[in-house]
Amino acid sequence: MLHGRKILVGVTGGIAAYKAAEIVSRLGKLGAEVHVAMTKGATEFIAPLTLRTLSANPVSVEMFEEPKRWNVEHIALAEHVDAVLVAPATANILAKMAVGIADDFLSTVLLAAKVPIFVAPAMNHAMYHHPATQKNLEILRSRSVKIIGPAAGFQACGTNGDGRMSEPVEVVEELVRFFTDSAMLQGKKVLVTAGGTQEPLDPVRYLGNRSSGRMGYAIAQAFREAGAETTLVSAPTELPVPYGVKRISVMTALEMHDAVLEEFPQMDVVVKAAAVADYRPKENATQKIKKQGTSLWVELVPNPDILAELGKMKTKQILVGFAAETENLINNAQDKMRRKNVDMLVANDVTRQGSGFGSLTNSVSLLFPDGRRIDLPQMNKLEVARYLRNEIAGLLGVTKE
Ligand code: PMT
Q1: Shortest-distance Cα residue to atom 20 of ligand 1
Q2: What is the number of the ligand 1 atom nearest to the C-alpha of 350?
């Protein structure tokens, strides 16, 4: 299942380091070419010889040891492999990764690596729940680092709680799933819109909405993970661009309209998760509007409905829309699905706690023109995005093995 895949396993200094032996062995048995880099701390828990024997490759520990080939060793390794897995990942390596510290071989490879990175955290539960560790994990997640586990249970320090490294079989399964998924949509072109458009009133003010862009960015990440060539047309947000995704930045609905229509003909899938202003101020004042002490009347004119236009133009494309609703969720969403001629509509009740604008989680229902309906439980936005992606892959006639 991992034949031809090159994986670097980074091992850091925690009691779970002994489990790295099983991970390396399992990856090798599945056909992967396995390389190992250890921190000095890890060598206190498990001998490099064990991992060298199981991986059938030299194990790197020292930054300045005699190079095995004539190239800069850590850069060469970062460029050679298809993925890096850090297991176990201590609180220390997670913190270094979050801020970009490169003070030994493993952390330097991690900073140089442009390939997907997985970490399997393993630490005492108090360290795991410390706000610093949680913040570091959030930073890593936002950079598309895949976090495996941790599990809960008895810990080496004698306590119970979460922070135990996931079992080797689960860690390896995560990699297998990733590589299976990563081939699923190869060759497909996907466009995702995200964020809330801003409609200028004058040089300092605009009409906007509460979209953070998280849902759209998560969808772009999910498609990229599945190997699709992914483009994000994004209204202003603070979010980093997911790894491997091309971003086209826009501000207004009209700019989004032009960017989307230009890209549309070559796309296989378009997902419109952006919150687009239905109206814009008729005038965009060239100078800041002064306070006058009386009511201010602003005339609004309609923006084009991008999704509806795409619904009329589509040929081969799978078109997916969202409906952000505050009442009559399913009826309103079904109405939008018909009017805009989409292949799937994601109904989003934005009044629910932990759902819709700005939140880390979302709860949505998927509606299809044939009357099918799937109600998803509340999940984090990346999980929702992966679910949507798999449904859309099904509409394209692509299914997971
Ligand atoms: O960004 P987050 O903070 O993560 O929040 C996510 C979200 C709530 C913004 C997202 O999940 C969502 O529901 N997006 C759609 C918001 C919206 O504009 O819904 P709507 O019901 O007004 O529009 C219906 C569909 O038509 C949407 O796909 C929209 O992109 C599209 N549209 C709307 C107006 C317009 N002029 N052009 C459009 O293309």
Answers
A1: 323
A2: 8
Answer yes or no: is the C-beta of 307 below 6 A from any ligand 1 atom: yes
CA–CA separation, 369 and 294 (whole Å)? 49
Over residues 104-108, the mean pLDDT reads: 94
pTM: 0.77
- The parent domain of residue 210 ranges over 189-395
For the annotated catalytic residues, the residue numbers are: 157
Mutate which of 193, 207, 211, 378 for ligand 1 pocket (most atoms within 8 A of beta carbon): 211
Tell me, what CATH number does 374's domain have?
3.40.50.10300
DSSP bridge partners of 160: 154
Residues 42, 89 contacting (CB under 8 angstroms): no
Q: How far is the CA of 374 from the centre of ligand 1 (A)?
A: 19
Atom of ligand 1 nearest to the CA of 322: 28
Q: Are residues 278 and 366 in the same domain?
A: yes
pLDDT digits (tens, 9 = 90+) for 287-338: 999 998 899 999 999 999 999 999 999 999 999 999 999 999 999 999 999 9
Do 107 and 75 lie in one domain? The reply is yes
